[in-house]
Amino acid sequence: MTKIIKLAVIGVGRWGVHLLRNFLAHPIVKIVAVVDPNPDCLTKVQQQYSLKKDILLTTEWQKLQQLPELNAVVIATPAITHYSLIIDALNWGCHVLAEKPLTLNPVECRELCELAEKQQLILMVDHTYLFHPAVEKGQALLQTGTVGDLRYGYATRTHLGPVRQDVDALWDLAIHDIAIFNNWLGRSPIVVQATGKVWLQTASPNSPLSDLVWVTLTYASGFQAFIHLCWLNPDKQRRLGVVGSRGSLIFDEMLVDTPLTLMQGEFERQENSFIPVNQQRKVVEIEKGEPLQRVCNSFIECILQNTPSTLSSGWVGTELVEILTALTQSLEAGGKPICLEK
C-alpha cells in the first residue's frame, strides 16, 4: 500500500501558491493544512483551488502541532521567519521543504541541519534552478569537456522590481546564479567580492539596501564568475554563461523554448594572428517539465527513501548562505576580498 504524505503549506503568497498547486496535484500527498497570516490569502486559495472542507485554514502556524499525523511542512514565508518555523516543525517530527534562503544566518542554518540529522528527518531547500532541465543538462555537458578548459563565467539578473524592503538585491537575486555556478563547477568559491550602489532606500531601517550589486566569485582552479544584479533596470535579463577554450555554454531563461545554447568556436594561430575557427551555434535539447514540480517530487521521494537530497539539502542551502554572508561583508567593506577556504 502506497504511503500517503500528510503535508501543510505555510505561506501562500506569490511563490507559496505554486508550491500548494504542485502538492495538491501530487498523487500521494494529502494537504491537511494551509497557514498564512493574511486571511485574504487563505480565502483566495480556498476559492482558487476549491480546497476541501477538511483542510485546516489558519493564520496561526502553531495550530499545526494539533495535527498528530502531520508528516511534512512546506515553508514559503519571509526568510527572517524560517528559523523558528523550521525548528518547530523538526521538533514536531516533520520533514521540511523551505523556500530559499534557508535562513539569513549560517550558524542558524548549521543548527537546523544538525537537528534534522539528529531527528532523522529531511531538510530540503527550494533552490528551484538546480532542478531546471537546462541546468541539469548544462552540468552534464560541462563534465564531458564540451567547451574545453573552463576560463570564466558571467551572469546577469536584472528587472524593474520587485524592490524588497527586508533584504538587498544581493540576497534577493544572487543565490540563484551562485547555486548554478557551484552546481556546474562541482565546487564552491574560495574567495568572494561584492560592490554595490544604493539609490532607492538610503535610509532603510535595515541599513542602506543596495539596488545594484556586482559579484565576483573565485574558485580554487582560478575560474572566476562575474554576476550583475539589479532590481532597478527595465531591461529584464536572466542569463548565465560559462566560457571555455572551445566555446561557451549559455543558459538564457528568457528564451523559454530554447534556454540552453552551445556557442562553439576557438582560435587558430597563424603567425602573429588569431583566426576564429570551428564556429557553430547549437541549441541544446532538454527535457520538458516544470522545475518546481521536480522540486516537489524530489522532496516526496527523499521522504519515502529517507535520504537527503543530493541537489538541494539543508547543507547545500547552508553553504549558499555562508557565501552570501561573506559577500555582504565584502559589500560593506567596499569590495574587500573575503576568503572562504576552510
TrEMBL record:
The lineage of its organism: Bacteria, Bacillati, Cyanobacteriota, Cyanophyceae, Oscillatoriophycideae. This is Gfo/Idh/MocA family oxidoreductase. Residues 139-249 form the GFO/IDH/MocA-like oxidoreductase domain. Residues 5-127 form the Gfo/Idh/MocA-like oxidoreductase N-terminal domain. Pfam families: GFO_IDH_MocA, GFO_IDH_MocA_C3. GO terms for molecular function: nucleotide binding.
